[in-house]
Amino acid sequence: MKTILLTGATGYIGSHTWCELLEAGYQVIGLDNLCNSSEKVLERVAGIAGKHPVFIKGDVRDAQLLADVFASHRIDALIHFAALKAVGESVAKPLEYYDVNVTGLVTLLQAARNAGVRNFIFSSSATVYGDPASVPIREDFPVSATNPYGRTKLMSERILRDLESADPEWRIGYLRYFNPVGAHASGLLGESPKGIPNNLFPYVANVAVGNLEKLNVYGGDYATRDGTGVRDYIHVVDLALGHVRAVAHLFEGAPSFTVNLGTGTGYSVLEVVRAYAEASGRPIDYQVVARRPGDIAECYADVGLAENLLNWRADRGLAEMCRDSWRWQTMNPHGFDD
Ligand code: NAD
Ligand code: WQD
Fold this sequence. Notes:
Elements: E1 3-7, H1 12-23, E2 27-32, H2 40-49, E3 54-57, H3 63-72, E4 77-80, H4 87-92, H5 94-115, E5 119-125, H6 148-166, E6 171-177, E7 179-181, H7 200-209, E8 215-218, E9 230-231, E10 233-235, H8 236-251, E11 257-261, E12 267-268, H9 269-280, E13 286-289, E14 298-299, H10 304-310, H11 318-331
Parallel strand pairs: 1-2, 1-4, 2-3, 4-5, 5-6, 6-11, 7-10, 8-13, 9-14
Antiparallel strand pairs: 9-12
Helix pairs in contact: 1-2, 1-8, 3-5, 5-6, 7-9, 7-11, 9-11
The protein binds nicotinamide-adenine-dinucleotide and UDP-4-deoxy-4-formamido-beta-L-arabinopyranose.
Nicotinamide-adenine-dinucleotide is lined by residues 7-8, 10-14, 32-37, 59-61, 81-85, 100, 104, 123, 125, 177, 179-180.
GO molecular function, one term: UDP-glucose 4-epimerase activity
Protein name: UDP-glucose 4-epimerase
Cofactor: NAD(+)
């Protein structure tokens, strides 16, 4: 049985991936410093998986801790989620972002190399495509970044590619996620942002449940079908299953690969608002305001490569994303903070 070290394990995507890896029969060691997640995730993962998860509270920048983890467990692969991810905060606190996202990655890679572990799955983002010249976006499109968060992902990809060139024993899966949304169908796991959410889905969920009054729709004058921004929302469980396929692909002996994980379909802000109102049975009050600086009009994936290479496709649609988000929101009105 293969053992996977999962960093950022108690976070939004990490916790869902943890459950799917256990379900697929892997042994998983979760590592997280809990700076953006809750220890309560552990009992939820236990409830879903039917076994107690192995968890280490620790920081990916802590070389000694990592050396101890590799010395005491035989690890076959890493899935590295641990990172800071808020675009606006990254502009205000660039050093924190470079430290966690870049120094954290390098420290983890050094520890893995010292232990002889060279199978690695990296959480990249559609943000590396910047403002794409056209959609759908293919993996060979040019990359760029407009904010420190995006630059940490670009630099991380660069570091990993340099590492592969220096030592072809490394086999790396670069997974570029589009917009992960939704929650576990059990209602036990979901996204629990601290403070007022920046992202559309958690914001809409909070309007629906009555925690927030109305949604600000950022821009009604984009060149899209209704003037609002279009994104490729992907159900977090589909995304988690993409990781299970990606790590299996490495274990099958595949060389390094870079793939988009999205659905291939874009929805506008107003389409999301309508779908959420339908799923929740609640009206979603909104007003159209000015564009948010840094936003792009349209972003959705070409998913052909993920389908061909990984034999994976996202099959949960927008209605299911809204239903599962709403179930999570009503069962946990304050996320994990109750
Ligand atoms: P999240 O914040 O819910 O999870 C990240 C986890 O990493 C948190 O539990 C946090 O406590 C942990 N962490 C942060 N710094 C750490 C450190 N120094 N040491 C140990 N643990 C640390 O975020 P998420 O949405 O689950 O994102 C997971 C990964 O996916 C991140 O790398 C993110 O950049 C990437 N990603 C996310 C999205 C998205 O929209 N959610 C899109 C593309 C890529
Ligand atoms: C979606 C759409 C907004 C909030 C971000 C990061 C990206 C990636 C995923 C990590 C846009 C509109 C939003 C609101 C709105 N993360 N919106 N009112 O910006 O596509 O991507 O998360 O890698 O790097 O930038 O996601 O959910 O913030 O916005 O109208 O209150 O909803 O303008 O069109 P985004 P989002």
